Structures
1.
Amino acid sequence: MTRLACDVLIIGSGAAGGVLAATLAEQTKKKIIVVEKGGWFGGESFDQREWDMRVLYAEDGRRTTADGAMAVRGGECVGGGTTVNYALCFNPIESVWNGWRRDVGLTGFSFDAHANDYGVAGLNIPSALHEVRTRINVHRAEDDEVNDNNRALERGCAALGIPSKHFELNMRGCVRSGFCGEGCTYGAKQGTLVTYMEDAIARGVQLIHHCDVERIVFEKKRGAMTAVAVNGRVRRTRVGSHPNSVATGRIEIEAKLIVVAAGAVATPALLQRSHHPDPHRRIGRGLVTHPSLPVIGIMDHELTNYRGIPGTVYSDAYASSHRIYFETLFGQPVYGSVVIPGIGAEHFDILRQLPRLIGFGAMLLDEVDDNNRVEWNETDGKPRIHYQLSDGDRVRLRFAAQRAVEVMFAAGARSVLLPSSERVGPLPRPHFSTAAEAAYCSDLRFEPYRTTLTSAHAQATTKMGEDERRTTANSRGESRAIRNLVICDSSSFPTSCGANPMLSIMTMARYQGRRIAAELARYDL
Amino acid sequence: MQSAPLLLATLVRCSNAVADRARVAEAFIVDPSWNAYLPVLRGVISAVLPFDAPGFPPITLDDVEQRLLKLFPIENDVQFAGLQRAIAFFDEITLFPLMSGPLLQEESIARDLAARGGDSARIGAEIAAADAAAFAAFAATIKPNARFRDLSNDARRTYLGLWRDSASIVKRQLFGALRNLLMITTWSMDATWPSIGYTGPLVPQKEIEA
C-alpha cells in the first residue's frame, strides 16, 4: 500500500488536467500530484499501427454507447484526448458561453480582455486563451499543408457556394505523416503530453499513471463534507510506457484540494461511485457527444488521403442554422474497413479503392437531453453510456447527410456512400450514383446498428453554473455538496461548447488554474 | 462491440429456454467445446471475407482464424466466456426469429425503455413478427433443418443479412460485432495492406503491451 500526501491532487492529465497541473505548478509552490488512468507512452512508442495504438484509448478504443452502436472515443493515456486527436483548434465561442450565463446563471469567464474576474488581475478568457494558444502553437493551416482529401471538401463546398475554412492546428514541425489518431510519433502535435505535462513534471509535479481511482473519500471537517483523499490501485506498468513513480498496488493519496479532470465519461462515473450527493439527479445527465456521420466518396483517380495532415479544411456554414460542421476526416485501414459498410465482395470492392477514396464527417452539435447519460455500473465497474438522438437532431443530421453527399459529388466523386444499411427511397442502401439521389437522405433514420455514427467529444455530464437544480458545480467548478472538490473538464460545460472542444477545455483549465492559484485560502491551501 | 460477449451469452440463455431442442442442448450445455463452435466461426469468416475475390490479399481462412483467436482470446479469456458457445448458437438458424425472455430484456436495455418508456411486450411482438417474416422468406431457399455451417457462402451472407437487417437492435448488434471483429482482425495485418493500396506506417513496429 502506497500512502502519499499532497496539496493538490489532479485526476486526469488531458486537456484539462495537464493545463491545471502546469498552471498550478507555475503559479504556486504547492505539492501537486497528477494521477492518470492510462499509460505514459511517448512518441518513441507510437508505432502508427491502429491495433497497437488502441492502448491510448479508453476501453482499447472500443468504448461505445450502451446499445453498442456508437463509438464514444476518448484518450486514456498521459495527455488524454490531446494525444490522439487531430489537433483541431477552435477558440471558445462567446455566444455559447453567454448562453450558459442566461440558461444556468454561469458567472465569471469574462470575454473582456481587461476584466479582472474574482478580483484576480488579468483573469479573463482572452488572456487565458492567449496563453494556451501560445504554449501549444495554435496557427492556421497554410495552403500548402492541405492534402488532396481536404482539397476535395474545399472544392466541393466552393462549387456549391458553401464557404469553407482552414482549421487552426496545435502543431509544431508537422512532418505530414498522416498519423494523428495513433499519437504523434514525431512530437509535433502540441498536446499536453509534450507541452503542459512536460512543464508540470519539470516543475516537480509527480505523475502517477496506470492509476485507477476507485473513489474520492469525503469526511466531515469543520461541519462540512470535504474531499480529503482518493483510494485506488496502481496497475502494472505496461511494456512501452515510461516507468511509474510509485509501486504497483493499492494507493491512497491525501490532498487538501482534489480536482477532477477525468473527462465527461469518467468524471461523473467517479463521482457516482464516490457517492457524491446528487439531490437533483444531475450527475452524468445531459450528455452531449457530437455524433458524426462519416461520408465516403469514390473518385476516378488516386489521390493523397491517408498521408498529409488529416484535417485542414472544414465548413461551419451550417453551424448556426443547423448545428452542423463538415470536417475533413480520414483514417487508416482498420478504421476504413469498419466504416465501409457490408461484407464479402461488396465490402472489399470499396476498401480496395482506398487510394481513390475521399472522406469527411458531418458533425452534429447535439442537444442536451437528460435521458442521455453516463451511469457507473456496479456490476462490471464500467461507465455505461446511454445515448439516443433526439428527433430534432435526427432532422438536422438528415439535412447534413444530404448536403454532404451533394458536396461529395460537387468535389468530383463518381459515387458516394454512407456507412449504413438503411433503405432510402428506391435504393437498398444509401450508396448514391448521382447528386440528385442525395434527396433520398430524407429517409435516413440513423438507427443503432443500421447507420454508423461515431463520436469523440463527450461533454456536459457534471455541469457548472449557478442554477443549483441543474448543475453539480458552481461557476468556479466547485462541487456544491463537497468542500475542496473542483470539477474542471469537458463535463463542466452545460451544453455542447459549440465546436471541437479541446481549446475550450484548455482555456477553461488555464483560467481555473490561475484562479485557484490566486484563491488558495478558499481551499485551505 | 465491447458488449458482444454479453449479448451472445444472452442469446445462449435464450436458446437454453427452448427446452425441447436436444441438439441445442447438446451444443450449448453439454458440449461447449472447441469443435462445437469452430466450424461455425469458420463459416462466418468465409462469408464475411471474400477470399476468392480478384485482388484479395494473400491470406487464408486459417490465418484470419488464428489471428482472431489471438487478438480476441475467445477460449481463454473470461470476458469472452459467452462468445464461444454463442458462435455455436449461430449454427441453429431456425432460432433466428426468437424474441423472448432474456433477449427481450436485453432489447429493452438497448432501447433504454426503463428511462424513456415503451411497451417491451409490444415491441417484442413487433420484432418477432418482422423477423419471422424475413426468416420465412430465407427458409424457403434452404434445406429444412440445415445448419449455418452447411450453407453455401452466398446463403450464409443472406443469413447474416437477416441479422444485419433485423428489427431487433440486439440482433443487429450481433452481426455488427462479429463483422467488426473480423474487419479489425483482417485489416490490421500488414500482409493485407498492399492489396488495398495502403503503403503503411513509416516507422518500425514497437513492442507495446495492451
2.
Amino acid sequence: MHYTWQFGVLWEYAPYLAKGVWYTLKISFWSIFWATIIGVLLASVQISKSKALRTAAIVYIDLFRTIPLVCLLIWIHYVLPILARTELTPVQSAILALSLNGGALASEAFRGGMEAIPHTQKQAAFSLGFSQLGTLRHVIIPQAIFATLPPLTNVYITTIKNVTITMIVAVPEVMFRAQELMVQTFRPLELYTGAAIIYVALIVVFSYGMRLLEKIRKWDPI
Amino acid sequence: MERGAVLGAESFVTVRNLTKKFGDNVILENISFDVEKGKVLVLCGPSGCGKSTLLRCINGLEQIAGGEIRVDGDRIQGASTGDLLKARLKIGMVFQSYNLFPHMTTLKNIILAPIQILKQDKKEAVENALKLLDMVDLREKADAYPSSLSGGQRQRVAIARALAMKPQLMLFDEPTAALDPEMKDEVLNVIQRLRTEEHMTMILVTHEIHFVKDTADQVMMIADREIVETADSKTFFENPKEERTKQFLRIITKE
C-alpha cells in the first residue's frame, strides 16, 4: 500500500476537534448522571412490594434497552417535538436518548449488585432489630455499591461510546467534526483514526478513574 | 405428660400449635412447647426436619401458617412491623454462616445496632463492645475486618454482636456446623459460659452431643413435621422412649 499518512492534519485542526471533545464530555456527563438516577430509582422500585411499580419498571427497562439507539435518537429529535409541540436542540435530544437508554442498562447493574448480597445479610440485620429501610441503608447498599461498580463501568463506557451516534442529529462532537473536516481535506484515514484515538483515550482515563473508585473498598467480601 | 409440652409457671417462650408451610409443603405441624426463663432447649432431628425453620419462626424471620408464638408475652406471629421489631430486640440470633457484615470491622459490626437501634451514644457502645470482645477473647481483633478472621473467630464476633443488644433470649442455628473441631470448642465454650454466668435463656439447633449433654436442660426431637419426644438431656440420651429418637441417636453417635 502506498498511502502516505499525514497526521499533521490532526494538529492543524486540533482546536476544532478539541471543541468536539467538549461536546462529548458534556453529553457523556449529563447522560451518565441521569442514567444513574433513573437506574437507582428503577432498581429500588424493582425490589419494592408494589406489583404495579415493579411491572412499570420492567416495561421501562425492556422498552428502552430494546429500541435501537439510532431509532430512539431520531424519534426523540424529529418525532417527539411534533407530538409535544416543542423544540429540542441536538444536544438535548442526545442527552435525553442516552439517559433513557443508559437508565435501563444501569438499573440492571444496580439490581444485580443488590441481588449479589446474600439473603443471610438481611436476616442478620433483621435479627438485630433493623427495619427494611435500615437494612438497605446500613447493610445492603454499602456493600452493593462495590458489587455494582464493574457492571456499571460497562454501562457508562457504552454511553460514552454512543455519543458518536449523536452525529446523525448533527451534534458537533468529535466524530461529527472529523467527518466535516474529511469533506474539506480528503483525509478520512487520519481524521477517523484520530477521532477513534480521542474516544479511546477518554474511555481509558474514565475506566482508570472507575478502577480507583473500586479500590476505595478496604474490606473483602466473605 | 403431654408429648412435647413442657409446662412451666415461668414460660418465657411459648409456642402453641405452630404450623409452618412453604407453599403447599407442610414443614412443621402442630408444634407446642415452652421454654422457661434461664433454661436451655436443644432442638435435634434429621436435616430438613424443620428445626432451623422453627428457630427462625421464633424471631419472626419466617411467617407461620397457624398457631401462636409468644416471647416474654409479646406476640410474634401477626404482629405489626413495629411490634415485631420491638419484640426482636429481646431476641438475639446466631447463624450457621455467621453472617457478619463484611464491610465493617469487628467493632463496627458490634456497635452498629446498639447505636442505630438502641440509640446508645458511641462511647457507651464501644465500651460495651470491648467488654464483649474480652468475653469472647477477641479484643485484639477489634479493628480487623471479618474476611481476616477464622471461622471460629467470626462466630464469636457474631455472638458478641447479638449480645450487644442485651437480648433475653438467644437463638443459635447450628453455630458450629461449619467449623473445625478446635474452633467448635472455642464457640461452644462461649455458649456454655452464657449459661453458667449469665443464665441466658437459649434455644439451640446443634448436633454436638457432648455439648448438649452438658448444657441442655431439655432436648426436643423433631422429625416428620412434629415433635417426637422431649426430655431432659440425661433421659434423652440414656433412656429415650421413642424408636425414632433411638434411631437418630444411633446415627449421630456413630459420627
